[in-house]
Write the structure tokens for this entry.
Amino acid sequence: MSNKILPVLMSACFMLTTASALANDHDNEISVLRQQLLALSDRLDALEHTNQELKADNHRLRESHEAVKKATVASEASWADRISLKGDFRGRYENIAEQGKSDRNRNRVRARASIVAKVSDEIEVGLGMASGSDDPVSTNQTLGGGGSTKGLNLDLAYVKWSGLGNTTLYGGKFKNHLYKPGKHGMLWDGDWTPEGIGIAWEYGNYFFNGIGTWLESDSNKETEFAYGFQAGTELTIGDGMKLTAGFGYYQFGTAGKGTFFGDNDDFFGNSFNPVSNTYIHDYEELELFANLGFSLNGRPANVFVDYVRNLDADQFDSGYSAGFKYGSAKSEGEWEFAYIFEDIEADAVFGLLTDSDFAGGGSDGKGHILKGGYAVRENVNANLTYFITERDANAGRARDYDRLQLDLAFKY
């Protein structure tokens, strides 16, 4: 029996030993698995932290991108808001009938373009180019020459400062801001741009304008700095009527000096010494003006009068113009008509700067101007102007001088 028990005991011991070993191995495996799970959990926590950091970085990048995008758009919009381009083009047929000469027919164009930059809320800088020659009172270009290229010239180059509220200062070559009754050029041609300094002031119904302009700034030539000012008021009288009235004084120290533009014997109607080819007089121009705007049959209308006298001359020293305008050719289908009479004696004004079309330009002319205009489209106008004038009467060479102009003009 003992022989049977021994194998059984040995089997039991083996089984117990094996079970104990298996239990130990199982515990080891569980411990290893637990460590692996803890390590995996740590890695997951680390990955989650990294993911949160990546999300935060991505959010910051998106915000930065949006900020850059908005800044770029704002910058582009700001640039577009600060820069403006404007100009005009005009085609013209012209006929000139001067007594003693054959009629002259010519086709001309005028093209002007300017760019204006707002440096700040108070400062504006402008640059403008225009067709034509270096004539200070004309930007017209006569067509011809077999289709040759035509020149462009500096028409505007200025800085404008409006930092004093109701006062504006100009410097450089700028648009003439002096008030012209009826927008007529008895003293100043519409194409003339002063070169120097300017001021414009307004307070309530009152205004003051002044300019200082170089006729010649080169000390190697005969330098001349001309200056002038005007003061006036705008009053509302009655129902829809506005009266603008005032006076001006302009000083040109030209006596004893030669011409400032063109041939040395072309004084644009002013009196001169033929021996020395110099001006006889200074031009101390006193101007009185009035313009009345009102409505007639539902259309705008105005009448004006402008008087000037040269205080330095003792004869041929006065000039005046008077006229009216009815209608306004601004909107499509609208029309306007105007009539002006002018009589400007030889030494009433400085002839170089007066209307270059009336009586051939310069002073010493008188006659009638008829104007008509029709708005074909917004900013597209067809215009007719007819001058019936006489020139050089004070010089003893009176002759008729008529001019017809047919224009098609575009603005942008």
User: Anything to note?
Assistant: Residues 2-82 form the longest helix (81 residues). The helical segments are 2-82.
